[in-house]
Write a structure and sequence with these properties.
It is elongated and about 75 Å long. The protein starts with a helix and ends with a helix. Helix 7 (125-132) packs across helix 8 and helix 11 (209-222) runs parallel beside helix 13. 71% of the residues lie in helices and 0% in strands. The protein is mainly alpha-helical and 382 residues long. It contains 19 helices and no strands.
């Protein structure tokens, strides 16, 4: 039923987050939230969708939690706490507490991603397992271990304050970024979940510019999803994409976000770079190069320097890009994109034979079949 599906998408995170806060039991919270949705699936087609679906689900889930705890003879104190659950959100949204708890640095990064997907977004364990290329039972154990570690380590169910918030927020954003990247590289549903979670976090933390910038970055990158592959499923580079296929409303939303968001961190810079690529006319490589110069200052990683070399090659000439490329210390066999960048810059420097050999070398070092075919195609074109 569509109404139940919408209720799951809109209210799952709040249901689970509130039930965890008042019961202290992650598994019980998820089970009761799931039971409430099952009851809705049975009753709503017969009785009609209630005026307040979220409040209705919370009441059913609350009553279910009380019944389960009573039958399990849980101590009287916890029973009283469960009975005090109220549909109205507390002063600090429980979903924000839940996101920061799922993304606690004490957990391994992939465990944080899996736990966030399952608990905050309500993604079925089987789907998460498929993304991580493990069995459903293995993913169930992984998520269970993460929950157990939260309990055993007494990780607090709260949003950090003061300096601690500044220290923890980048870790939360990194989880969302990894989630989006997995979706961007082949699982669109994960990219959509990352956008939904970034939008939720932006609503809950409206004063954090990096949160808003991350949402804008996701929208800009995802706007090109329909143009990234041709009819045969092969990769299409940005300069050859059909821009009529880009999601213009998503781009407009992202640009509006950036207009009211100050540049205060690396995600803000990444978003501005993506915005430069989202134009309908000629790409402004000069502006992109300047943004990458600033990004290299605040985030001086080899990957950023590699992209900076590309943009300098387009903005100031292939020779300028090649000179920057010589300063990068990435292993060419582990990171064959370095070879591909050299090949592209070499081709534009007027050395097609050398570039052709480099494209073949990059293809040989690339494990992904789609990317390998794209590199061979570039070689053949030369």
């Amino acid at each position: 039923m569509d109404a139940v599906a919408r209720a799951h998408e809109e209210h799952w995170g709040r249901l689970v987050a509130t039930l965890i806060r008042v019961t202290g039991d992650w598994t019980l919270a998820e089970d009761c939230a799931q039971d409430a949705l099952a009851v809705a699936l049975e009753r709503w087609p017969r009785d009609g969708v209630p005026d307040n679906p979220g409040g209705w689900l919370m009441t059913v889930a609350r009553n279910r939690a009380i019944d389960v705890m009573r039958r399990a003879a849980v101590e009287e104190r916890k029973l009283r706490e469960a009975a005090m659950i109220e549909p109205a959100p507390p002063e600090e949204d429980d979903r924000l507490r839940l996101i920061f708890t799922c993304c606690h640095p004490a957990l391994a990064l992939e465990a944080r991603v899996a736990l966030t997907l399952r608990t905050v977004a309500g993604v079925p364990t089987a789907d998460i397992a498929r993304v991580f290329l493990v069995s459903e039972s293995a993913m169930t154990r992984r998520i269970t271990r993460a929950k157990s570690k939260i309990s055993a380590a007494r990780i607090p169910y709260r949003v950090p304050e003061g300096d601690a918030l500044g220290e923890r927020l980048p870790g939360v954003l990194a989880v969302l970024y990894l989630l989006f990247t997995r979706g961007y590289d082949g699982e669109p549903v994960l990219a959509e979940e990352a956008i939904r979670l970034a939008r939720l976090l932006s609503e809950l933390m409206p004063g954090e510019s990096e949160v808003s910038s991350l949402l804008a970055l996701f929208l800009l990158q995802h706007s090109r999803r329909h143009a990234r592959r041709d009819a045969a499923g092969e990769l299409v580079t940005l300069d050859r994409q059909d821009r009529a296929l880009w999601d213009r409303p998503a781009i407009a939303e992202a640009l509006e976000i950036l207009l009211r968001t100050p540049v205060e961190g690396p995600y803000a810079l990444h978003a501005r770079i993506a915005a430069c690529h989202a134009t309908e006319g000629e790409t402004d490589w000069g502006s992109i190069a300047l943004w990458y110069d600033e990004l290299a200052r605040v985030q001086p990683t080899d990957v950023v320097q590699l992209n900076r070399a590309v943009t300098h090659g387009y903005a100031y000439g292939a020779k300028a890009g090649l000179e920057l490329l010589e300063t990068i210390n990435l292993d060419r066999q582990v990171y064959p994109l370095v070879i591909a960048v050299e090949a592209d810059l070499t081709a534009r420097a007027g050395e097609p034979e050398k570039a052709r050999a480099l494209f073949y070398e990059a293809a040989a070092a690339t494990p992904d079949g789609i990317e390998r075919r794209a590199l061979r195609k570039r070689a053949d074109e030369l």
